[in-house]
């Protein structure tokens, strides 16, 4: 948490709202041109193609290797529960319960039940309730634990208890998967697709009547699966379908699986996942007082109803608002039962029978307590293997090609000339010395706030005459870094000093989202990183652009030669910027990581998602940038994956492993 006042704390929020509004308006214009059934069919093909672009790579199907580890019979209820273990990737196990009706003739209609964010997963009372109630009506229901929930905890402590919490686990593996070119939502969707394979393989199931439902995070997976798989004949998402724009406007962060990369850049909205599903039955289950905006729910319904009308099936799409807040309340569940019952040819009365609620232990499928203890690999195991595989076959990019490669991966916008700047009111540091401040306009609606110790400057504003300059790019607030004794020693005698905060840092740190902790898995830095991913403009790239534009500003105002110093997070953006730009007198990286590979392979990585270049390890690693800069660069007191100083011996050893010269390393900050 930085101490710098957030004078421009709304800047990033308004920037992304404008970007999302523009994308949303363009999306509405495209849908407005759809006017015939043939238009709809062409749109369905295109939407499905774009969905698969965002969800790539989806692995090839594997045999389920299903193991029934126990059975619960309920003759009075007319169903039984099989406790199952299924494989969705080689060695990657899913724990599930299959509810099978024991009454009725012929194959039963089926429902794939996806769980929302509950630590108990499939055993959470509300989720086992709707699975059991559907089975009592004659449906075969397969409900499975999502990754990090129920029996699938990825980071258990010695007792098997989650050490991070399910949302933190999702976001942890999400950022590490991004480094190796993967998407956590694809993992979650693949679990659902393979579970559906198994469900439809059962002789008790009628493959022509197949529903999918779930609430909140389960509503997410219901939505993604409906857009990915044509075998689903009816869908009932609860408390999810909204718009990406509304979530942005309302400052609503989401888990890593809920932010498909480049989905907005591909021209899609959240409800577009149901366009390929049309004209098959769909009901949007919502709550009047949910944090998912009911106005956006109605927009989704209105647009989808028009699509269904063009296909002659307007009666197949419905919306229902319960009277409560977020949750799969009894009101929503009753609508689910009636809707699926009607379209499957079963009981369509909106009622829930008296249920038998069982404990998580009774419904557990893994004899060892968790699938990991039963021998399943974890997501981090796959990430490590993939990172090693990429490292073994990746050839370091030639130094002369690296700037263009980085510019493409970071999606850097064009820079034209010297940026305009504003002269802001001066402030004072802790020693009551003047600090001059400038707002360098590095993009539409974006200012990089630059602080300059006044020193011997006789007047107000930017000094004339230029001369040697040092640009400091701080960790979370460069003005705070200027107060650090170690940084002061490092900058002593460095000429004119400027300290820059790229967007979302220092004075532009947003005043949005959760608890104000910059490194919280759900706070504003993660939130705007998510918006950038969906727009196809990674936040890490926009921050690198801000550093580059600030260097242009200094050079354009007569300063040179220029030394670049980055600390902590600023070390990453400075290294990438220096590699793209070149032509710097020196580059000093203080408390930076040595390699993205290190961040991908640890159990717990504390560096935020916004520090990661998406797909980085498929093309390059940070040591490639270090080698490209060469003798002009030095590494000072590097940090490990926990953002803690590496011990001297460990730092030297890691440099040798990375084939970097030990002469680059300074273990302490000296004057």
Question: Which key features would you list for this structure?
Answer:
single chain, 671 residues, Rossmann fold, 9-stranded mixed sheet, 21 helices
**Number of H/I helices:** 21
Judged by helices, strands and strand pairing, the structural class is alpha/beta
Relative helix content = 25-40%
Question: What do we call the CATH topology of the largest domain?
Answer: Rossmann fold
Mean pLDDT: 94
Quick one: how many beta strands?
A: 18
Low-confidence stretches: none
End-to-end C-alpha gap: 27 Å
Can you tell me the CATH class of the largest domain?
Answer: Alpha Beta
CATH architectural label of the largest domain: 3-Layer(aba) Sandwich
Integer-rounded radius of gyration: 27 Å
Q: How many strands, which pairing sense, and closed or not: the largest β-sheet? A: 9 strands, mixed
What does the overall shape look like?
elongated
Percentage of residues in DSSP E strands: 15-25%
As laid out across the biggest beta sheet, the strand order is 1-2-3-5-4-6-7-8-9
**What is the count of structural domains?**
2
The name of the CATH superfamily of the largest domain reads Alpha/Beta hydrolase fold, catalytic domain
Report on the architecture of this protein:
- The protein has 671 residues and is α/β, with parallel strands linked by helices.
- It has two domains: 22-387, Alpha/Beta hydrolase fold, catalytic domain (Rossmann fold); 421-666, Rossmann fold (3-Layer(aba) Sandwich), CATH 3.40.50.1820.
- It has helices at residues 11-32, 37-55, 125-137, 166-179, 184-201, 217-228, 244-249, 294-310, 330-344, 360-363, 379-393, 402-409, 478-481, 485-491, 524-535, 539-556, 569-581, 596-601, 616-619, 622-629, 648-657; strands spanning 67-74, 79-89, 92-101, 108-114, 140-144, 205-215, 234-238, 282-287, 317-322, 421-428, 434-443, 446-453, 467-473, 496-501, 559-567, 586-590, 633-636, 665-666.
- It has a nine-stranded mixed sheet with strand order 1-2-3-5-4-6-7-8-9, with helices on both faces.
- Helix 1 (11-32) runs parallel beside helix 15 (524-535), helix 4 runs parallel beside helix 11 (379-393) and helix 12 (402-409) crosses helix 17.
- The radius of gyration is 27 Å and the shape is elongated.
């Amino acid at each position: 948490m930085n101490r710098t006042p957030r004078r421009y704390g709304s800047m990033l929020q308004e920037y992304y709202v404008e970007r999302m509004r523009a994308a949303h308006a363009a999306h509405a214009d495209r849908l407005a041109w759809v006017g015939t059934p043939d238009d709809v069919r062409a749109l369905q093909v295109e939407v499905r193609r774009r969905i698969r672009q965002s969800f790539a790579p989806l692995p090839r199907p594997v045999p389920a290797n299903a193991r029934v580890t126990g059975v619960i019979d309920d003759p009075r209820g007319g169903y039984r529960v099989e406790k199952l273990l299924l494989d969705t990737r080689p060695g990657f196990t899913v724990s599930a319960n299959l509810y099978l009706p024991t009454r009725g003739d012929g194959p039963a209609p089926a429902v794939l039940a996806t769980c929302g964010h509950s630590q108990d997963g499939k055993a959470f009372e509300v989720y086992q309730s709707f699975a059991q109630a559907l089975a009592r009506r004659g449906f075969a229901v397969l409900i499975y634990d999502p990754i990090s929930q129920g029996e699938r905890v990825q980071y258990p402590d010695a007792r098997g208890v989650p050490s991070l919490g399910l949302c933190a686990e999702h976001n942890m593996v999400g950022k590490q998967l991004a480094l190796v070119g993967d998407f956590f939502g694809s993992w979650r969707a693949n679990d659902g697709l393979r579970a559906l394979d198994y469900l439809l393989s059962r002789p008790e199931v009628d493959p022509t009547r197949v529903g999918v439902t779930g609430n909140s995070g389960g509503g997410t997976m219901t939505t993604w699966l409906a857009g990915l798989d044509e075998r689903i004949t009816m869908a009932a998402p609860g408390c999810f379908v909204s718009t990406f724009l509304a979530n942005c406007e309302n400052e609503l962060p989401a888990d890593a699986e809920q932010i498909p990369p480049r989905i907005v850049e591909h021209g899609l909205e959240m409800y577009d996942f149901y366009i390929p599903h049309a004209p098959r039955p769909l009901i949007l289950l919502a709550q009047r007082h949910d944090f998912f905006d009911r106005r956006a729910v109605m927009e989704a319904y209105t647009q989808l109803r028009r699509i269904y009308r063009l296909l002659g099936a307007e009666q197949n799409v419905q919306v229902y608002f319960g009277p409560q807040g977020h949750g799969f309340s009894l009101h929503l569940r009753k609508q689910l039962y009636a809707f699926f019952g009607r379209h499957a040819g079963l009981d369509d009365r909106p009622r829930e029978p008296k249920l038998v609620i069982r404990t998580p232990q009774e419904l557990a499928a893994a004899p060892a307590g968790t699938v990991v203890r039963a021998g399943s690999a974890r997501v981090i195991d796959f990430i490590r293997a993939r990172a090693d595989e990429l490292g073994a076959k990746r050839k370091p990019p030639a130094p002369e090609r690296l700037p263009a490669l980085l510019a493409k991966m970071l999606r850097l916008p064009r820079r034209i000339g010297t940026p305009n700047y504003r002269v802001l009111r001066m402030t004072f540091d802790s020693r009551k010395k003047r600090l001059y401040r400038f707002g360098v306009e590095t993009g539409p609606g974006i200012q990089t706030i630059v602080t300059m110790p006044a020193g011997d400057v006789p007047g107000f504003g930017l000094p004339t005459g230029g001369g040697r300059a040092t640009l400091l790019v701080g960790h979370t607030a460069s003005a705070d870094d200027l107060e650090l004794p170690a940084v002061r020693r490092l900058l002593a005698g460095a000429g004119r000093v400027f300290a820059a905060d790229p967007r979302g840092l220092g004075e532009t740190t947003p005043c949005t989202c959760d608890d104000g902790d910059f490194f919280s898995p759900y706070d504003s830095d993660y939130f705007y990183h998510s918006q950038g991913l969906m727009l196809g403009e990674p936040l890490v790239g926009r921050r690198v652009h801000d550093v580059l534009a600030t260097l242009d500003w200094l050079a354009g105002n007569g300063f040179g030669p220029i030394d670049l110093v980055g600390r902590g997070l600023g070390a990453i953006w400075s290294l990438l910027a220096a590699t793209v730009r070149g032509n710097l007198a020196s580059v000093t990286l203080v408390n930076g990581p040595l390699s993205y590979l290190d961040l991908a392979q640890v159990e717990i990585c504390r560096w935020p998602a916004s520090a990661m270049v998406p797909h980085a390890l498929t093309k390059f690693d940070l040591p490639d940038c270090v080698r490209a800069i060469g003798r002009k660069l030095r590494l000072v007191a590097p940090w490990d994956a926990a953002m803690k100083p590496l011990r001297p011996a460990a730092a030297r050893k890691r440099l040798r492993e990375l084939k970097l010269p030990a002469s680059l390393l300074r273990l302490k900050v000296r004057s």
